[in-house]
Prior knowledge:
alpha/beta; nine-stranded mixed beta sheet; single chain; UDP-N-acetylmuramoyl-L-alanine:D-glutamate ligase; four-stranded mixed beta sheet; 25% strand
Amino acid sequence: MDEPPLLAPDRRTGSLLGIGQISLDRVVQVDRLPRPGEKRRVLAEQTLPGGQVATALLAAARLGVRCAFAGAVGDDEAGVRAAAPLAEAGISLEHLRRLSSVASREALVLVEEGSGERSILERRPGGLRLPVPPVPGAEVAAAGLLLVDCEHLEAARWAAGEARAAGVPVVVDADRASEPVLELLRSVDFPIVSMGFADEISRGFSLPDALRALRGPRTRLAVVTCGARGSLALYGERVIQTPTLETRVVDTTGAGDVFRGAFAWALLTGRGPSDALEAANAAAALSCRGLGAQGALPSVEEIESRLG
């Protein structure tokens, strides 16, 4: 289908600015995810970098997007290890805050062998917060695209407001519903939520109805990521269902984050809604081939090859 690009040409020359979560994950493979009160056998474990926006930016940088990151880590080894892949990828870390007397965000990720499904136990110290503003307003205005999650909600709301005032499109990643988060989602161009978030707000209605509940006056495309079922999006009144690709699944951790990073790349390379969603779904599926959120980030060639 011949569709117009979602971003205007003047926005497709800018960088991707991401503000949000960065983490160090202890990834534990088990033979099966435990039920309450049950013991399961550990097969292997590794400590690997992760975090929603950090992973999305790394995925976008792998696809050739210029990126800058604002987030917060503690002044500890976990923070150094979590930030290392971003620095190696050439992502600007000028606004990564290293906070003293507070630990970095960490998570325990249980991954089921065979299915790749995971459960996550996270630890984010209360003092691990970004200030407002997290970056100078001029840097938001100069970006081609802004990506925020809800880890530092006040900083995200401030940045989204600055972006709106400057005409910078905004992508929001949300996986937990609340009224302040819904307010943020309805104020941006591209709200992207998890299936769990959609279930929380649907109240028994359909997924398209949940997508309609996310729309505001600026919404261009609202998206629900549906795991193995791909994604569902609302473009005007048109519902776009995009299946995932068949791939060997090792670990689904970070697939939604990679979806967002690849979606940002697709926007910045001038794709329309269907093409952008297909590329993002392909990238998310390919990312499941390796262990950890950042273990199998796909290249442009791999995505385009899988899309035919």
